[in-house]
Structure to design on (265 residues):
């Protein structure tokens, strides 16, 4: 019985409707009181339920016996439901095929926790097919090493700025240790970035005690800012190595805007 009730409900009957129809299948003709007792339906709900069943074409009311009801034969009812469901499915299939896909939706996820950052970074690296842009520290370099190596073997161009020594397999690698020392001293945190195919980025700040807050996003403007940050770190480091620290510091000291940015960043 429970299985029959469940299947009737799956075909669109309410719980009371399923019970009332099944009660009539078991004993007909029956009046509302009898159906209520057999189906264990509250008397206050029985006539409302029977009316809905009549509208659905599942039962009929006797024209000669007042207040008596008959079930529509199960084979007739199921054939009707089958036809209705088949028609509905065919209509839905056409409508779904004609549905226009939405344009790409930018997604942003804020998160906390170092493990979440590592998971997101590895996911991005694994999803990358063309170019991988990294700004990471030795601690993260170790954790991401295998995923980066696999990306390199897939033919991905790996451009990495590492704030320290690295053994990663990259197409282009630069040691940003000197830049990292001043950055960490100034900010008190390690800023770490992983960008895959210019389509997604994870950015996080890692505190001295390991506390980690970050964001993963596919928003183009944020990806662009992250890319420019890494590129300028690399360009700045090469510039300093080329002209020397003394000339670079002298240039910064003599330029009011550069001095302000360094002191107030």
């Amino acid at each position: 019985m429970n299985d029959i009730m469940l299947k009737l409900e799956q075909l669109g009957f309410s719980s009371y409707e399923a019970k009332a129809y099944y009660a009539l299948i078991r004993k007909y003709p029956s009046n509302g009181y009898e159906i209520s007792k057999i189906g264990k339906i509250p008397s206050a709900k029985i006539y409302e339920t029977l009316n809905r069943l009549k509208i659905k074409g599942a039962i009929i009311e006797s024209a000669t016996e007042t207040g008596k009801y008959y079930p529509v034969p199960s084979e007739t009812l199921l054939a009707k439901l089958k036809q209705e469901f088949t028609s509905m499915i065919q209509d839905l299939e056409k409508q779904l095929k004609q549905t226009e896909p939405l344009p790409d939706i930018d997604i942003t996820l804020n998160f906390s926790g170092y493990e979440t950052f590592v998971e997101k970074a590895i996911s991005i690296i694994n999803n990358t097919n063309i170019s991988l842009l990294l700004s990471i520290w030795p601690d993260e370099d170790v954790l991401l090493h295998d995923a980066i190596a696999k990306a390199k073997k897939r033919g991905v161009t790996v451009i990495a700025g590492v704030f320290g020594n690295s053994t990663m397999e990259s197409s282009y690698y630069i040691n940003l240790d000197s830049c990292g020392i001043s950055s960490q001293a100034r900010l008190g945190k390690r800023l770490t970035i992983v960008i895959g195919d210019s389509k997604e980025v994870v950015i996080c700040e890692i505190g001295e005690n390991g506390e980690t807050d970050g964001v993963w996003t596919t928003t183009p403007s944020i990806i662009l800012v992250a890319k420019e940050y890494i590129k300028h770190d690399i360009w700045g480091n090469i510039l300093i190595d080329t002209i020397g620290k003394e000339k670079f510091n002298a240039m910064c000291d003599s330029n009011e805007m550069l001095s302000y940015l360094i002191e107030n960043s």
